[in-house]
Amino acid sequence: FVAGKLLGRFQPKPILTGAMIWLLGGSLVLALVPQSTPYFVFLLVAGALGFGFGLVITITTVTAQAVVAPDQVGVATSFNTLSRTLGQTLMVSVYGIVLNLRLTQGIAADSRLNSNMLNELINPHTAKNLPAAVLPTLRQILYEGLHNIYFFSIIIVALAILANHFEAKRVLTKETIQESNEES
Fold first, then answer.
1. For the structural domain made of 2-183, what CATH number should be given?
2. Which of 5, 77, 161, 164 has the fewest beta carbons closer than 10 A?
């Protein structure tokens, strides 16, 4: 709804820039909130991030469809979806590495801890079985691991904003795409 209205008034590039700045802001909030932040704040930030991702996904999908010949809309849409899915898959793996690296470092720094304790901490039913003396340390390690992901996200979103900014300053139309294809 919002993306459609914006596309009626603006080119895709400034909309994408605005959406990515929105995502950067949400990532900054997640990276900077203290461990004691109330749950509802995370719900608000998640909603805001969902709005930003919704804009990005809608704008890129509509743009991919609009700049190709009618008989290529299916291919463009499929490729757009495939690219997004592969990107998500790659980033989940990278985020997993970032998180696990920090968790491993945190556990190694305290001889009282092991990885099973972190697994128990994540499940509320098993967390109550952990020794009370190690709970603050385990929570801090998990908190730092999640924050490492958010800081890494800030870098990724900032790079995306820069890539979008320095992309050739041209209006995407079927004609400009055809000209680009003919030059290749």
1. 1.20.1250
2. 5
